[in-house]
Amino acid sequence: MTRSVWTVVLVLCVGAVAQTTEPVLVYDFEEGAGAVAKCRADTPIHLVASGTPHWTAGVDGWGVETSPGSILVASKVLSGDDQEALTVQAWVKVTGPGSSHKGKPDNLAAVASNRSQATGFMLAVSAEAPYKAVFVVNGLRPGGHIVYSDQTFGANEWVQLTGVFGGNFLAVYVNGQETRRDIDPAKIAAGARPIAVGGENPSTDYYQLSGVIDRVRVHLRALSTEDVREEASFEPQTPKPPEVSADGTPMRRPMQPAPGADSQRLVTVATRPPADFVGSTDEVLRDAIADVASTGGGTILIAPGEYSLSRTIALNSVRDIALIGSEGTILKFADQVHTRVTEGAKKGDTRIALASTEGLRPGDRLEVQATGRVDGFSGRQTQYFMGTVATVDADGVQLTGPLAYEAPAGTTVVRVHNGISIHGNCDNLTFENLILDGNRQEADVRPINHVVHCGIFGGGPYNKESASERRPTNVRVLHCTIRGFHHRGIAWYSFADSLVAGCTIENTGAEGIDFDHYAIRCAAVDNAIRDCGVGVELNDTSDCLVSGNTVERCGTGLHLWRWYAPEDLNRRNVITGNRFVDSANAGIALGDRTEANQIRRNEVAGSAKAGIILGGVRNCATGNRVTDSGAAGIDVTGRLNLVAGNACRGNAGQAQIEVQGEGNIVSDALAGE
């Protein structure tokens, strides 16, 4: 999604940086959000957006996409002293011609630059195809010194570029191979200009790149060829699954305040004294949340014990709140309440006669399983409608409003709720070390409405055309166990910049993790998901990351698909470093109308159908290992997709990789090995 426009004026300068074997600047763009990219280095600095660059799939996780008029600019310079050696590295995917400068044939498109007319450096590519790597150092001699690679490369492919200045030489590498070296002994002045990524100068459109950049590094030394090859052979490490204790449950982290809440209130909840709030039902948790919300936020420490939930724990338009459990903190649904209508209720009635009202109370939400309501999005008639209890007597309930539809005698009525709900303009919420147990039982009536009986459910305002910016943001679910729900473990609609990490999600009737309509820049990392209807679902999402998860015995391991029409949905999602094992359908499935998503370095084993179904357009499946599928290892059903570097073995299709769509680029052997 395009970021906001920023105007940047940078004047901060620093003294010389001591020479070190480590990079002095490291940009991995790991955060994938916001207008500021953090630097991982001994002296942290930031890159700030100039123009409208946006986050997209990088060579590993997130990268940043720039174009003429949109670059990133660092808020400090390297040094004002002469440098005897310098190395600049970056991974680059050029997507089109760079900007021109006075029509010169040797135009450059800067990847990373500290250049002025007399000082500094530029690692770049030639502005027009076929592309060459270029390294420019000013200060060597009048007019500077420029070296082009002899090797060329095309658009839309990742290449690792390195420029090395060694005091008596200038060299340029492509994918770890030295392609040109020129001898010219001298020193360079590193310059008093900021580092720019994606362009040479934020105040002009000269030398600006159209493409994606990741893993930028600057060293104040000349890297050896072995060092350069090491970066070029970079393989991201698959994150480890959560540690488990002897009984198979995830290890718990110590309780800690939520980020941003350090100076705010801290309250305790327990099933028995002493504690600030004492009780064993959802009411005590709601009271604690209301208390800290009234003072601007805080941390709620929940002591071990079982807390019975017969109503949703709701957080609406609140911020800076953390619910932190400890070993043995269990939030468990009360036994389901379901009954039936004894006398038919007509449209407009406010009362429903019921066979039993045991367990019902005012404020409960009821799912009335009768035909009548028309779904606002699909236009189809739906087999349920919702009501809220106003009062309860022995023979039935009075509702808060008139029935919009008929409820004939014999209609099933179910009390429904979620574990935790998050709605409105929420920001900076943390849920950690909690066990959410949906208490799904064989005798239950399964609710029809798929947005109830979920572990953690939430959403911001949206419709078919757009979503509001006032949506839940910076929500984190960490090291939680979520199990036994009729529908989703976690379902987030129209969330932004939120994270599910280190959780165990199991035995849900629908999705384990669902990022849904207009969820942007959300991430699922290092989770164990098993025995769910779908492991992970991405539906109408963009710029989301699914990494390092283990997904076992689910219907489909991961499903990415499109429902709504807006063009910027279902794009730039990254699925990397996961294990999908024994899926009842496909291990990974990308549907039609998805575009520019990355599926890379995943292990897919034992899928009953195809290991990977690659629909849509311009999606990429690279470096995956797909084994023992019931059909093809990879089934390419879409158009203009890229399939490269995958290992497909032991799959039962007519070919290890089957290509049905048009214009796809498949560099793997179709027969596998």
Overall mean pLDDT stands at: 85
Percentage of β-strand residues: 35-45%
- Biggest sheet details: 14 strands, parallel
Low-confidence stretches: 1-20, 237-245, 247-263
Task: List the strand order in the largest sheet.
Answer: 20-19-21-24-33-36-39-42-45-48-51-54-57-60
Radius of gyration: 28 Å
Q: Structural class from helices and strands?
A: mainly beta
Tally of separate helices: 2
How far from one another are the termini?
39 Å
**Helix amount:** under 10%
SSE layout and pairing:
Elements: E1 25-27, E2 36-38, E3 46-50, E4 54-57, E5 62-66, E6 71-74, E7 82-83, E8 86-96, E9 108-113, E10 121-126, E11 131-137, E12 145-153, E13 158-165, E14 169-174, E15 177-183, E16 188-189, E17 196-197, E18 210-219, H1 225-232, E19 265-270, E20 277-278, H2 282-294, E21 298-302, E22 305-309, E23 313-316, E24 319-324, E25 329-333, E26 338-343, E27 351-354, E28 365-369, E29 385-393, E30 396-399, E31 412-416, E32 420-423, E33 427-432, E34 435-437, E35 456-459, E36 473-478, E37 481-485, E38 490-493, E39 499-501, E40 504-508, E41 511-516, E42 523-525, E43 528-530, E44 534-539, E45 545-547, E46 550-552, E47 556-561, E48 574-576, E49 579-581, E50 588-590, E51 598-600, E52 603-605, E53 612-614, E54 620-622, E55 625-627, E56 634-636, E57 642-644, E58 647-649, E59 657-659, E60 665-666
Parallel strand pairs: 19-20, 19-21, 21-24, 22-25, 23-32, 24-33, 25-34, 32-35, 33-36, 34-37, 35-38, 36-39, 37-40, 38-41, 39-42, 40-43, 41-44, 42-45, 43-46, 44-47, 45-48, 46-49, 47-50, 48-51, 49-52, 50-53, 51-54, 52-55, 53-56, 54-57, 55-58, 56-59, 57-60
Antiparallel strand pairs: 1-18, 2-3, 3-6, 4-5, 5-18, 6-17, 7-16, 8-13, 8-18, 9-10, 9-17, 10-11, 11-12, 13-14, 14-15, 26-27, 26-31, 27-30, 28-29, 28-31, 29-30
